[in-house]
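Bump. Still looking for 1-deoxy-D-xylulose 5-phosphate reductoisomerase structure tokens.
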Amino acid sequence: MRRISIFGATGSIGQSTIDLIARDPETYHVVALSGGRNVAQLAEDARKLNAEIAVTAEVARLSELRERLAGSGVEAAAGEAALIEAARRPADWVMSAIVGAAGLPPGLAALEQGATLALANKESMVCAGPLVMQTARAHGGAVLPVDSEHSAVFQALIGEDIAAVERVIITASGGAFRDWPLEKLAGATPEEAATHPNWDMGQRITIDSASMFNKALEVIETKEFFDIDPALIEVLVHPESMIHALVGFRDGALMAHVGPPDMRHAIGFALHYPERKTLPVARLDLVKLGQFTFRNACETRWPALRLAREVMAAGGLAGAVFNAAKERALDAFIARRIGFLRMAEVVEETLNRVSAQSGLITAGITLDNVRAADHFARVTADEIITQD
Ligand code: NDP
Ligand code: MG
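Sorry for the wait, here they are.
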């Protein structure tokens, strides 16, 4: 049996992963499941899948988790150290689907025990891409992309020579405000930003899609995952969300990955890789779809895309600072403390202030240094937000 763990099991990606695993109970032994606030879902799935251990990130919810698991034989635990411990339990395949920088430590722990890491948590790559890849190499594990664009690039590159790649285009739906006039954006509310035209995802990534911070993180993730020169990475708005990425080669060929906006494709691809197995995703009727359209992704409308380029040029821990500042700006937007357009300004100002501190960005990419940069960026972003 294949031993599987799912971190962020109660979220959108986690639930889609469980949907696939639960269809084939004879094949999988579930080692660990993790969640945050939603201990009811966590306990229900841990019972259903007969997991060894269920971990909530929230220490205050441990007693509720214990009660819900009473008599099931599933162990209960809570807190960050427990998450890392659970990730150290031997498993063959581990899904990293916690949202935010909190996903990095359990992902590294899973790689350290030699697991294959299916990486939905793009923040791991943005904060510490070289560390993630080097940890995988050092322990004989592998990292497989789950983000749909990166899964698409990965699939387009199978059997290809990376040196023959001329361009990598990742697509963006444009999010909730794609067609809003620029002057309306300042007054956009969290509820308006949290509706996505095509994908059904967690609240945070949906708002990040409207601001293009999601795409900004993905551009950096592309660079880190495939070790691609940032100058070769392009973003195009593709409102239909059917083509997830295109890879251009030096002979002029463009390989496009087409599929319905259903994350169970990318999750299932990573689950069964290197094989392709039947997956429960819709088959596209191309005639009905009729056409695929593309537009340029304007950096005035979406300054997050410009910031991503600056972060890649700065290198080092700039990604960790960028992500942490983005997380705090997003928290403040959700709490209605700052407006929609202010998020990018807070992130830019945080990057400027932290970069001015000598040595912070240029320190080596270790987990301790990532944590320090992340912490300093959060404090700085909070200061900027409080001044508003
Ligand atoms: P959700 O918000 O739906 O789920 C997040 C998961 O993380 C939940 O299990 C949540 O627990 C848990 N969690 C939240 N905060 C913490 C924390 N501080 N420590 C530990 N666990 C925590 O997110 P998504 O599933 O949408 O996204 C997960 C990751 O996958 C993100 O990195 C996202 O960018 C990426 N991704 C998602 C896609 C999608 O289609 N949804 C597509 C591509 C990438 P609880 O809910 O119980 O509080
Ligand atoms: Mg994506």
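The longest strand covers residues 28-35.

Edit: fixed formatting.
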